[in-house]
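Dear Dr. H.,

I hope your travels went smoothly. While you were away I took the liberty of generating a structure for the chain from your last submission, since the lab meeting agenda had it listed for discussion. I wanted you to have the full record in hand beforehand rather than looking at slides cold. The sequence, exactly as received, is reproduced here:
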Amino acid sequence: MIKQQSEHRMMGACDPQIEEVNNFFVSQNFPSEEGEVFYFYYQAMDWRNEKGMPLQDWKTAAFEWLWNLEH
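The corresponding predicted structure, in token form, is as follows:
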């Protein structure tokens, strides 16, 4: 039981609410729907990057996401 509790990651400071992500995407002149795609992608990955490391700042990941959409 202790192992299960230690494996479960509590919501961290990096984990935004979906409304916060949508507002960020809109503020960057992207549709809120793209914010939802971003949100659910990282939510499914437990707010970790592709290498499995926890995101330190979701906005940095969002800026990279938006850069990739444009390039």
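Two observations you may find useful: Residues 16-70 form one domain. Confidence is low (pLDDT under 50) at residues 1-8.

With kind regards,
E. W.
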